[in-house]
Amino acid sequence: MRMNRSNLSLLCCAGTLAVTLGVSSSAQAEGKSLTMCWAAWDPANALVELDKDFTKATGIEMKHEFVPWTSYADHFINLLNSRSTECDLIIGDSQWIGGAAENKWYVKLNDFFEKNKISMDTFLPATVVGYAEWPKNTPNYWGLPAMADAVGWTYRKDWFAKPELRAEFKAKYNRELEPPKTWDELLEVSKFFTGKEIDGKKVYGSYVFSERGSEGITMGVTNAMYNYGFQYDDPKKPYHMTGFVNSPGAAKGMDVYKELFTCCQPPGLTNAYMQEGLDAFKSGQVAMQMNWYAFFPGLAKDPNVGGDKIGFFKNPAGPAGQFTQLGGQGLSVVAASKDVDDALLYVKWFAQPDIQQKWTDLGGASASKAVLESDAFKKSAPYAPSFVESMGMVKDFWAEPLYVPLMLDMQNRVHDYVVANKGTSQQALDSLVKDWIKVFKQEGKDPS
Amino acid sequence: MSDTTPRPFSEPSPLSRALSAVAVVLYAVIAILPLIWIGATAFKSQADAIAYPPKIFFSPTLEGFVDLFTVQTHQSHEFIAKMAPPTTWYEKIARDRDMVIAGPSRVVERFLNSLIIGFGSTILATFLGTLAAYGFSRFRVPLADDLLFFILSTRMMPPIAVAVPIYMMYRWLGLYDTRIGMILLYTAVNVSLAVWLLKGFIDEIPREYEEAALVDGYTRLQAFRKVVLPQAVTGIAATAIFCLIFSWNEYAFDLLLTSSNAQTMPPFIPFIIGEGGQNWPAVAAGTTLFLLPIVIFTIALRKHLLRGITFGAVRK
Amino acid sequence: MTVTNPARSLAEAAARRGSARFAARAGLSDRAVAWLFILPTMLLLLAINIFPLIWAIRLSFTSLMANLPTPARFVGLDNYVDILTDEDIWANFRVTAHFVFWTIALQILIGLGLALLINQKFRGHSFWTTIILLPMMLSPAVVGNFWTLLFQPQIGPFNYVIGFFTGVAPSSFSMIGSVVLAPWTIVLVNTWMWTPYVMLICLAGLRSIPDYIYEAAEVDRASPLRQFWSITLPMVLPFLMLAVLFQAIQSFVMFDMVNLLTSGGPGSTTETVSITLKRAAFEKWQTGYASALAVILFVTIFGAANVYVRALNWVKQQ
Question: Could you give the 3-state DSSP secondary structure of residue C28?
Fold first, then answer.
């Protein structure tokens, strides 16, 4: 099980740590504590477990402040913005990094990394760009890649294996019923399952994100749009969006997502994000589910749908390629914290290879190459191979300082079209370009 | 108009009375059902709370309350088997669901904030309101009607709209996310209600009493303290409860102007989450504990209710 | 201040006999006491209401973003032009208007009906009245949050109850998720919450009608229906209009319940202006823009309230 290895290894591990960190006794740290802020989800449980080791090694008590995903950005950006001392350490979303760097919410870590010989080369390149760098692709580090994550899919292996369904599918589509490799196949398989009666329950084809208030539907729709040709801007001319954001391919991608949502989403899930997807999948409502890899360790062990019943596949390809939405977060030190030194001590502790390994073992997801690229990891779990592949094909949303208005504009436009049937996809994206140009102008950038 | 003088001509017939009674009771029962559902959910297990179809009969448990007051982590069976046996009943409830209690939750802090900010602003608003109401009631104040209208109009401002500049101001003054900032803000909102209500109550106290006291050699302040206040005490109490209810229920300002230190219950309750998604029994437990005092106050206040919610514009 | 003054109509004019003739023998003069008593309240209101309001007006002409260190630029009327030419904002005003209109219509209908029934004074009426009042006294945010559970298609009791009476499958519709139903869902919850308010005021109105008027009508053999139209309704009307004023303002600025129930979705079908404002101000941090929207909201409310109060006074004089 993911929460505990033997107590023995735990103790010895803590022992080595105390030595490496040069903290001789916990007495001197008496009464010290650090608050770690993150979202409330499965991996956060693993972090609580992991942090017990830190307390053992240093005597510094760890407090945790976890808020639900739908309020996560809103809540913590507000905290950071008001220079609150609530959080000492924060596992902040990848898209915040621009704002955090430019407003100096986070402590810049370059000198600290250099002094402590923490090399960014030991982490997956996509995670370094995504969780640590601002401006992107420059060696300015504001976080330590902490939680590698991307969008992936789960499916009901047991349903896919049912001979009668396989025969029916073969007769209808003239191919085997297998996890889809393209979005076209995804649509077909979803439609095939929708309305079927399995184990005495009416089931639906697939679950996709549809949440409106924070980032949900954007984190869902991009998985279709990237693969049909959506790009954030002209690769040759940064911030030039016309014809890239609203390209015909991007509109087609949005249409495909809408088709999937309309045909095959279980009823009532019109404002649903991670948790609703997990519930739908666990309760046997859907054949396939879009969600973050972070939940897959838990799902793989689920008493009802885990084990032999669950399979995993990476985001299917489209005509323009195969990409997937990057999730995940870096670990950053809050500049307003009263205990920056202790917080840095934590980062140093967390970056150690054996802690990174343990972090993954407990149910977190290290971004360390050593951990992820090891054969042991690929064999460790059924989702591991597709996870490693997915991390190699990620794209992320804007990480600009004005990421929130950019995100909310996209949320509105996409939700209006996909869920509320307003206008056409082309209109939605044309409006989105206008919205975004306005935001970039406010930021002082030239999007024309 | 009162019950003691029966209406000889238009007295309702027994039949129409009975039909009215049935209709009103039916509406009351339907209206109260959601509240009863909240109370019932507080005592459900998580599985019962989200069962399909919804469960009306269930075996009650205190899980919701335990979840509300503690932070727990999910652990494996084997891990829990290795731990020392639970020493308290609440630990046992958690362990039965493979959870381990890691510490107290923040609900007590939030509840305390609700109490401190609620009572703080109520006392301040009632105090300021009593003085101002007496001033308006008894003295010739230039532009009195305009000032009273101004006081009333501050209450009409949409909270979200006012919150924008107040946020800027509070950040500048260092009052953002402080209890004192919230107390001042709620006082400002409540004082308008307090002035209007108390002016009505004080207007009803015959001025002859004070005038007699003044003739007897009391100063104006003494007359206010020894003659008017004791007479107005019911009105002041009713006003205070109305102010308290407002501060207790307020959500928008607290959501936008606090983040942790001064956060009260209303913005916190929707944040009560379990191992994913809202933990409905815990939410319901929090909601029940939070609503209960108001239910009691409402019953206690019912005679003054009308006056309170119409700013004293309707007295009876 | 304006000519028509709600204070005048709402307040029962306090008889202001000259109290100065009993000049206090010692201590502060009456004038000093009066200012001493009134000033703290006025200062507090100036500091927390008027000063920020003026600040907001100033900010509304700038491009300020409160979360960025970049200084604000003066942009003149740009924010106002942006808002007033933005179709989406107009759509949000339409959503708000739909919400306000229908909640008030339903509240009046049900509230007045209940008041008439309760006025029959059956045994136990005061107990049941208190029960009916409860939803109004409770925190709209906390209760609104809970309604999301009640409305869940599969696990919430609401759909199940509807299904029981109509035969519709409980999981076949979603009160919060459907584009068609969601605008009515917020109307429904708001009506549930605030009907008691209208009822209470109507009840006060009914009780203010002296018996002799009805007695005279009986003598004239006026039918009950005629009595209702020619006595009850006209006498209750000023009270009803007062209820409409309070409720219109209340629903126009309603934020708590809608934010927790639908947060504006699905799409923007329930995005009232308050929600738009909150998102602009506290999520996108477009402080200048949000201030302009706030000013527009103020002007709308005060303008409409003023017109309304004139109408109210006119009705009262009839």
Answer: coil
If you measure CA to CA, which chain A residue comes closest to C155? A268
Provide the ipTM. 0.88
Q: How far is B98 from chain A, CA to nearest CA, in Å?
A: 12
Quickly state the pLDDT bin for B276 (edges 50, 70, 90): low
The mean pLDDT of B150-176, rounded to a whole number, is: 86
Determine if the peptide bond prior to C52 is cis (ω within 30°). no
Residue range B96-130, pLDDT digits in tens: 887 878 778 889 999 999 999 999 999 999 999 99
Which residues of A fall below an 8 Å CB-CB distance to C? 74, 77-78, 81, 99, 102-103, 212-213, 267-271, 401-402, 404-405, 408, 412, 415-417, 419-422, 442, 444
A57 Cβ under 8 Å from any chain B Cβ? no
Please say if the pLDDT value at position C21 is more than 70.
Answer: no
Chain C residues within an 8 Å CB radius of A99: 67
Cβ-Cβ contacts under 8 Å for C316 (sequence gap 6 or more): C9, C238
Long-range CB contact pairs, C73-78, < 8 A, 24+: C75/C288
What chain A holds in terms of domains, given with CATH numbers, is 7-149+328-395 (3.40.190.10), 151-325 (3.40.190.10)
Determine whether the interchain pair A442/C67 forms a contact, defined as Cβ–Cβ distance below 8 Å.
Answer: no
Q: B132 — contact with chain C (CB < 8 Å)?
A: yes
CA-based nearest distance B168→chain A, Å: 10
Neighbours of chain B (3+ CB pairs under 8 A): A, C
- Identify the structural domains of chain C with CATH numbers, from first to last: 85-317 (1.10.3720.10)
Domains of chain B with bracketed CATH: 70-105 (no CATH), 108-267+291-309 (1.10.3720.10)
CA-to-CA distance for C242 and A224, rounded, in angstroms?
54
pLDDT (0 to 100) of residue B179: 95
